[in-house]
Amino acid sequence: MTSLHTMMPTLRLSVLDQSVARAGRPQDESIRHTLALAERCEALGYHRFWLSEHHSLPTIVGSAPEVLMAAVAARTSRIRIGSAGVMLPHYSPFKVAEQFRVLDALAPGRIDLGVGRAPGSDQRTARLLNPHLRSAEDFPQQVLELHAWVSGQGLPEGHAGHGIQALPMGATAPQLWMLGSSGYGAQLAAYHGMPYAFAHFISEGEGCSQALDLYRATFRPGLLPEPCATVCVWALAADTEEEAWRLFASRERARIDRNAGRFGPLLPPEEALRPYGGSERFHSEELRRKALVGSAAQVRDKLTALAAELDVGELVIITWTWDPAAQRRSYELLAREFGLG
Q1: Distances from the Cα of 221 to the Cαs of 5, 6, 215, 265, 313, in angstroms?
Q2: d(CA 92, CA 25)
Q3: Which of 47, 119, 125, 309 could make an S-S bridge to 56, C-beta 3.0–4.6 Å?
C-alpha cells in the first residue's frame, strides 16, 4: 500500500473514537473523554484521530464530528484529524465544504474529510436531519461537488454552483476519503481515485479483503496517483490477557444486544455478563474467535498479521471500554509495542 505521504517501513497506527455512552455516567462526559483521548494519542505518536457521526443512538453520543474536530484541533499540533465520517446524504456538499475549509484554516494540512452514504441513524431520524434527504443515487454527484468546493477547483458552467466558492481558501486543503463497509464505497473510491477506508469493525471483517481487492483492481488515478487504503478495526489490549477479556464483556454485550435491536449505554464488564442462548451463544463465540483482544504483545501480533493479510500499511483502531482509563491504557500499550512516537 502507498500512503498519502511516503511509504512507511513499519505499521502506522491511527485512532477512531465514537464518544461511546457509558452506563451510570453523564453523556456529556463522553465528549470530554474524547478530547482528552485525542491529546493523549497525539503524545503517544498515533498518526490520525478520526471521529464518527451517529444520531439518536443511545450507545454513541458523537453526533457532530465537525464540532469535535475543531476542539481537537485547538488542543493538538501534529496529529491528523478527521471525520469517519460525514454522512453526506444528510447535508449540502457546499456547507460541508465550508465547514472543512474552516477546519483546515484551524489546523492547516491536518484535516481528513471522510464521507459515507449510510444514514448513521434510523430513517425517521434521517428525515428529521433533512426533510429533503438525498437518495443514495445522488451520492456520487454529491462527492464530486464536495471535492470541487473543498479543493477550490470550482464547478463547471451550467451547474447551479458555478462561480460559488467555499471559503476560507488557504495553502492547504482537507484530504477527501471514501468510507465504506461494502463493495459500493470501494468502487466509488476507485473510480474517483480517492483514498479508501474499510470499516472492518462493523462487519467483523466480513467482505473486507474483497472490497480492498475491488478497490485496487479498479482504481483510476484521480485525487491520488495510486491506491491508498486503510482498515478500521476494533482492538483492545490490557496488561494481561485475562484483564483484556474481562473488559471485552462490555463490547460483547453491546454487539449481541444490537443484533436484537436493543441499544443502550455501554455496561461495566460485571454488569454486562449474562447467559447467552441459541444464536446469541453462536455470535458470542464468533466475536471472541475473531476479536483482536489480549495482552499488548498478543494484540500487536494479531494486528500485524491482519495488516499483512490485507496488505495495508495503516490500521485505524477503535476501542470501547466502560472505564475510560482502560481505553486509554490500551492505546498506551499498543503505542509502546509498535514503537510509536
Answers
A1: 16, 17, 12, 43, 20
A2: 35
A3: 125
Q: Which three cell numbers stand for residue 185?
A: 464505497
Return the C-alpha cell found at 295: 495482552
Reduced to 3 states (helix: H, G, I; strand: E, B; else coil), residue 295 is strand
Q: How far is CA 58 from the centre of its chain?
A: 18
Task: Give the three cell numbers for residue 341.
Answer: 512516537
Task: State the Cα–Cα distance between residues 61 and 34, nearest whole angstrom.
Answer: 11
The per-residue pLDDT for range 129-154, each reduced to its tens digit, is 888 766 667 899 999 999 999 999 98
* Residue 7 confidence (pLDDT): 37
Q: Compute the chain's Rg from CA coordinates.
A: 20
Crossing angle (nearest 10°) for helices 139-151 and 183-192: 40
Q: What is the pLDDT of residue 284?
A: 95
For the CA atoms of 207, 209, 210, 213, the dihedral, rounded to the nearest 10 degrees, stands at 150
DSSP-assigned states of every residue in 130-146:
-TTPPPGGGHHHHHHHH
The three cell numbers locating residue 33: 473523554
Here the cell at position 78 is 501534529
Using DSSP bridges, classify how beta strands 314-318 and 292-295 pair: parallel, antiparallel or unpaired: unpaired
- Write out pLDDT tens, residues 243-299: 999 999 999 999 999 998 999 999 999 999 999 998 999 999 999 999 999 999 999
Could you tell me if 165 and 177 are in contact, meaning their C-beta atoms sit under 8 angstroms apart? no
Domain ranges of the chain: 12-337
Q: Which residue has the cell 490477557?
A: 241
pLDDT digits (tens, 9 = 90+) for 293-307: 999 999 999 999 999
Question: By C-alpha distance, which of 291, 297, 339 is closest to 319?
Answer: 291
**Amino acid (1-letter code) at residue 125:** T
Distances (CA, A) of 219 to 150, 158, 188, 224: 22, 29, 9, 10
Architecture per CATH, 12-337: Alpha-Beta Barrel (3.20)
